[in-house]
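Following up on my earlier thread - several people asked me to post the actual chain instead of describing it. Fair enough. Here it is, all 78 residues.
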Amino acid sequence: MNWNTIEKINICIQKIKAGDHGDAIIKLHSLIGNHLHFIAYKYLKDTIEAEDVIQDFWNYTNWLYMFVSNLLLLPKNT
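Reply from S.P.:
Thanks for posting it. Predicted structure:
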């Protein structure tokens, strides 16, 4: 992965943190999806299992985002 790609990944993460949850996530997926699949396949040696792990990763990422967003919306204890 070159520095240009890493910079694009960082920009996507910054946009996601700033509230851009559509295009930035799609772009992030296009930037790191193949790398994630390669790593998962390297360890699992099974294409279907690797795809399942990657799907779980994206589902977990989405769940984590929703959890943190909702947590931030809770009133603060004073």
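The longest helix spans residues 47-73. That should answer part of your original question.
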